[in-house]
Amino acid sequence: MTIIEKIIAAHSKYERVNAGEIVDVELDVRAARDFGGPNVVKHLMDNNLDVADVSKTFFTFDTNPTGSDQKYAVNQHVCRTYARDRGIRVFDIDHGIGTHTLMEEGLAYPGSTAVTTDSHANILGAIGAFGQGMGDQDIAVAFNKGKVWFKVPESVKITLHGKRPGFLSAKDIVLNLLNKFGANSLLGYSAELYGDAIDELTVDERITIASMGTEMGAITLMFPPNKAVLDYCSERAGRRIDGVYANADAVYAQEFNLDISTFKTMVSMPGKPHDTVDIAQQKKQKIDSAFIGSCTNGRIEDMREVAKILKGRRVAPGVVLKIVPSTDAIWQQCLDEGLIKIFKQAGAMLSNAGCAGCAAGQVGQNGPGEITISTGNRNFPGKQGKGSVYLASPATVAASAIAGYITTPDEIPNEPAVFKPSENLLKKMGEAKQNSHHAEAKSVEVQGRVWVIREDNIDTDMIFHNRYLAITNIKEMGQYTFDNLAGYEDFAKKAKAGDIVMVGKNFGSGSSRQQAVDCFISLGIQAVMAESYGAIYERNAINAAFPIVTYKSLESIDIQDGDTINVNFETGVVTNLKNGKIAQAKPFSDVQLEIYTNGGLF
To answer: For 551-578, what is the mean pLDDT?
Structure first.
């Protein structure tokens, strides 16, 4: 049998399994992340399922260890609460990438089986273990049964012969393999790697290569464990671990022999991890940002290599370098070895251990038009942001961050490339000035249906919650108005253009967010009337030419929810058209009236 056939057989009821057979596989580890974990919990709760063995069941929070996203915070709390009630161990936001934690904690080891909600769980092939990423339904059943069904894959054998070039990193090895096999030549296969160059790979290097098996479509890239791997895993497991190896007469669907001496320093072109080219084709490509981390290249050997290149140098002006170790233990090791000081002195940003750029919840994302060089394993459009992402080794990324353009450590310039103003910038500004126009004259009197919300201290998070702050298109903002104000979550669906909102004291307190004004403009609300306003909110509204009216009391005209009222901004007269009664509010000041009639501060 091949390595994967032996591991599956040892975790099934059969002495032998063959490629193509579907068997139930006992799992040594069943884990769910903060991404997918809440759905696992939901499936278990909805189907009244319990957990088979809490000692083999885990949650790993690695996609948002900075806690910077409301939805992730909710998801993590759901998992924590479930875990507390059932005695399940949580590797929380202080641990790092889940698959790395499983190896670090001795839970995954050669010959073991593990499934998680991470599509890169096959990284465990680095230590000769069976790891698979699966959907939340599969993981829920794994929690409950302790096993899942699996189709035994066919295996291929890849042998690298020749001498490994001294400059060739593990990341370059896998980028060369991607160049050879593309995204689907190994689809559905378990690929075993052999050769002197493979035997000599460190644990960290094996992790880098195994991490990108997913990008080749492989079930796993399986490394026969060497002494270094067995020692590493035995120390962490607290007992002697032996490896699992293929039989001499194992059957392979295909065999490949590649000459590693011909491998080159490579980069993946934006949008396709498998679209790899010799770095010589992309040298001098100007970059905006650089990222070092992910499950592919956040190991201590990567951090040391980066520190060696950054020491005594500075990141190029205008370039942002972000560094994220894969686990907290590695982060601590960076601190103990003085690497963090080197990173900071070079001008890099360092963050909590975790997935980083691969996950939208942590550092490493880029914006439209931004060009990034990254050590990640994926650069699909939108995966690491809305810009363009090249993939490369840690050494290449560090050198490029210093140079300001894509380059290698041996070609770092004495003076970095700098950004120059766009040649068309002044021309465009001139055209904009010529095309500017004055706003149409605005009426100083409005009439509309009134919403009476008898509450004080409605803050900007109640008006427009911070989970929507990434929205910049004003047309999209209206739908979220008041969705965090108890009793008015459906305001945006019921409000009509031309409505007027009447509230109590201190409206718009809290954050300085402009969206809390713009959401009303988006809905076509004609004005807000309040006894008083948060100071920043008042400025934002006036500057946006959104009418806000201040009143002391309108009790005399008995305004009820749904009444139609008329408001004159210039005189401050408020009329309830239902009963004809009139009250006096504060007229617009000369400044507010000028900005309002001008259509805004600009």
So the answer is: 96
Residue 89, strand partner residues: 58
Structure tokens of 136? 């939340």
DSSP-derived secondary structure letter, 359? S
Distance CA 480, CA 515 (A): 10
Q: Which residues contact 232 (CB under 8 A, 6 or more apart)?
A: 127, 203
Go through the chain and tell me how many residues it has: 602
Nearest to 585 by CA among 535, 504, 531, 505: 531
Predicted confidence (pLDDT) per residue in 386-416, tens digit: 889 999 999 999 999 999 999 999 999 999 9
Q: How buried is residue 338: exposed, middle or buried, by Cβ count under 10 Å (0-12/13-18/19+)?
A: exposed
pLDDT tens for each residue of 47-92: 999 999 999 999 999 887 776 677 778 888 999 999 999 999 999 9
Q: Which helix (H) or strand (E) holds 301?
A: helix 300-310
User: Which tokens hold the place of 549?
Assistant: 């009216």
Cα end-to-end distance, the chain, whole Å: 74
CA distance 60 to 327: 12
Can you tell me the distance from the alpha carbon of 479 to that of 471, in angstroms, rounded to the nearest whole number?
11
Q: Give strand pairing partners of 576.
A: 565, 581
Whole-model pTM over 0.85: no
Rounded-to-integer distance, Cα 328 and Cα 466, Å:
29
Region(s) of the chain under CATH 3.20.19.10 = 445-598
Q: Which fold has domain 266-411?
A: Aconitase; domain 3 (3.30.499)
Q: What number is the average pLDDT over the span 433-455? A: 82
pLDDT, tens digit, 9 for 90 and up, residues 167-217: 999 999 999 999 999 988 999 999 999 999 999 999 999 999 999 998 998
Average pLDDT, the chain: 93
Three-state SS at 13: coil
Distance CA 107, CA 114 (A): 9
Q: In the 3-class helix/strand/coil scheme, how is 44-87 assigned residue by residue?
A: HHHCCCCCCCHHHEEEECCCCCCCCCHHHHHHHHHHHHHHHHHC
CB atoms within 10 A of CB 374: 30
Q: What is the 3-state secondary structure (H, E, C) of 199-267?
A: HCCCHHHHHHHHHCCHHHCCCEEECCCCHHHHHHHHHHHCCCCCCCCCCCCCCCCEEEEEEHHHCCCEE
3-262 CATH, one of 3.30.499.10, 3.40.50.720, 2.40.30.40, 3.40.630.30: 3.30.499.10
With CA atoms as reference, report the closest residue to 150 among 165, 138, 166: 138
Write down the residue that tokens 């002697």 correspond to. Answer: 240
